[in-house]
Amino acid sequence: MSSSTEAAGECGKTAWPEVVGLSIEEAKKVILKDKPDADIVVLPIGAPVTKDFRPNRVRIFVDTVAETPHVVIKNDTHSVPEYNYQLMMSSEEGAGGKRSWPEVVGMTIDEAKEVILKDMPDAEIEVLVVGTPVTRDFRPNRVRIFVDTVKSTPAVG
């Protein structure tokens, strides 16, 4: 076996264009099948990243809104899953304002931000990957958008 063939065999597959459009979990399964030792890092599209090269790291960038963002009223007694999108307001502020954005499900981050900001211009929007732990502190203008669909080709590095 030549040294170039050996080098190619050691590296294995380095990109997975076939997972674009899949959910995070589906993409992880495909990547781990080809590269069982992969250290998979999932980030919202546009998130800052380091420029160092790590041969086992595969970054997956996601950008599609997964579920309906909705308002959570301060002191609300309803059980809210940690991964849920949240807009937290005081009871007085939330009473007359829009409480959910079902129309943004399936949109990109930028599209969803535009819709939410039309309804709430002072919203502070945080973009997170589905399943990211969140704090439960009250911030009256916070909107959390969780994303879960692969946007671009994951690659080693």
UniProtKB/TrEMBL annotation:
What Pfam families does its record include?
A: potato_inhibit
Q: Which UniProt keywords apply?
A: Protease inhibitor, Serine protease inhibitor
Annotated GO MF terms: serine-type endopeptidase inhibitor activity
The protein's name: Subtilisin-chymotrypsin inhibitor-2A
Repressor: is it a keyword of this entry? no
Q: Which one GO biological process term can you cite for this protein? A: response to wounding
Protein family? Belongs to the protease inhibitor I13 (potato type I serine protease inhibitor) family.
